[in-house]
Amino acid sequence: MTHDAGTEPTVPSDGDTLVDWRAVLAGAVIGLGVLVVASIVGALLDRNIADYDESGWRAVLFVVVLVGYLSAGFVAGRRAPSAALTNGALAGTCAFVLWVPIRIVIWTVRDEHKGLFTGTSPVFRPGQLFGHLLIASALGMIGGVIGARVVVKRVR
């Protein structure tokens, strides 16, 4: 599934696949790295700042998480420009899915006295999980398109 310089990406035939799992994995690993760093920094700040929930750090780290999803898609789209939307969406989503077990480990180690899914302040709320999946997919797609356009501009 290749395309010539100066032309639009080709539509895959029956024998081709839209998903380039190597591109998805590469993007997901990059995105996961950003998410892990944001989680660790967030845990450290939460432990050391008395009013962490009221501080501006939560918003800053949320933006870092969004950049993680975008960068996952960017890497996947750059590696597979002919299917940038698909691979970018999968990379962003996979980065989030791979992050969830790491977040559970952080919750277990910290012994936050919070429920994982229940209680007054659970670590994961169903709405948050769904929202992150949606945001990860959408930003992965946007990153994928940007990554593919970088490749196309370099080829021209």
- Taken from the alpha-carbon principal axes, the silhouette is elongated
End-to-end separation in angstroms reads: 18 Å
* Radius of gyration from the alpha-carbon trace, in angstroms: 18 Å
Number of E strands: 0
Tell me the fraction of residues in β-strands, as a range.
under 5%
Helix fraction, binned, reads 55-70%
Q: What letter string, H or E per element, gives the SSE order?
A: HHHH
User: Total helix count?
Assistant: 4
**Protein structure class:** mainly alpha
Tally of individual domains: 1
Mean pLDDT: 84
Description:
The chain has 156 residues and is mainly α. The protein has one domain. 69% of the residues lie in helices and 0% in strands. The protein has helices at residues 21-48, 57-79, 84-110, 126-155. Helix 1 (21-48) packs antiparallel against helix 2 and helix 2 runs antiparallel to helix 3.
